[in-house]
């Protein structure tokens, strides 16, 4: 009798505590509830909120669908988190230049599990110091020094492609991603991993770890640490991550030791000397930043991951757009012949002269932006034209939708590089084209990416005519795996030019 009374009392106390906690939780969040009502969005269900919109859907299509249905500012509860989906250039400018939205979306935590506090996923305080210190390592003089590597690796790619000329349609992605991987690795760490000639385990580990991080980002079950840790996938993730880290750390440690012993640094054979990103980072760290070995490794991995996959997909998409529009391809070819002729190697002074190719790349990035959805967290209120985004909420910037908005880009599915003639650009809002994001936390590697892509594409187009089974860019299915990809590969065929 006494025991059951104690149990009853305990139960009552427990339920009262729960009710008080629940009441306080909602009271504290009353402002968020109120602010969510400023803008329309999908109906909220208990526990999951509007997350039902994403269940069994391609996240990119679901995000674009929200914009089409509810307008350029959509409010959505995803579980307990208030999210705003945005795609108006003026709003994007306000957000990307606001100090209250420097932090990344909570969803980035799975990528952070691999990249740690590297620049992309760094907490705001660390990011500010590092970004300031790292920006000069991407200056033009340093980048010009890398061009010899871009040229040598893209020539290897051309030789590889020569072996499949006339053999029908193939997926270009594997070839290109191995080339960009070799380029990034060499300019970043001063070593060749020879991914174009070997099986490239580094690529395998990185792909495997990232694939799992992305599954976790979008899965209701695997985003839960407990359920994930019970799964077989967690074993594969840990193993890939461990190998990736060990491999990169060994290189970092060796170069750090060489620097500290003041030993001649490890450059590439007899090539003219240039400082790699890792060497610059080590110098910075010893002088001012005082990074630990782990922090250096995280930064190196961040640049390697951020730089190789994005550059590879954009290059592969460009080969598709050139294969679809043969007139544009011919103009690119003419420009290459005008600048280089038929057999001179590219030197860094040539790259700014590829102005038409640059427009082609910009138009490709409009249709296929590397980062189609960008996520931020909001620490204090940000005032937009039509509403106030409250501190404590999250933002998804639907760049892909903005890039295909017919009010900004008439006939959005038409591939037209002349949209990027300066007189056309000046008619648009400066934030209407954001493949590299914008504001203070934009892509630090944009110039580097353009230089790599110009070199690789110029070398391919000079040697081959490209065709693809696609007839129109609108036929290419898309999905966001953090980086924008097509699930159907990048099919092209090559024919040697006379
Ligand atoms: C076509 C190629 C590329 C595209 C489309 C691209 C796109 C982007 C985008 C959209 C962001 C913002 C991400 C976010 O806000 O979550 C970003 C950030 C970044 N990118 Fe790139 N990127 C490219 C190439 C590169 C290259 C070649 C490197 C380095 C070698 C690089 C390094 C970085 C880094 C370190 C950041 C984080 C910057 C910061 O938070 O301060 N990217 N990039």
Automatic annotation (TrEMBL):
Cell location = Endoplasmic reticulum membrane; Microsome membrane
**Needed cofactors:** heme
Q: Which domain of life is it from?
A: Eukaryota
Tell me the residue numbers annotated for binding heme. 443
A single cellular component GO annotation: endoplasmic reticulum membrane
**Transmembrane ranges?**
6-23
Q: What is its main location?
A: endoplasmic reticulum
Q: Keywords on this record? A: Endoplasmic reticulum, Heme, Iron, Membrane, Metal-binding, Microsome, Monooxygenase, Oxidoreductase, Transmembrane, Transmembrane helix
Q: How does it sit in the membrane?
A: Peripheral membrane protein
GO terms for molecular function, please? heme binding; iron ion binding; monooxygenase activity; oxidoreductase activity, acting on paired donors, with incorporation or reduction of molecular oxygen
The UniProt similarity line reads: Belongs to the cytochrome P450 family.
Q: What does it do?
A: May be involved in the metabolism of insect hormones and in the breakdown of synthetic insecticides.
Q: Which named protein is this?
A: Cytochrome P450
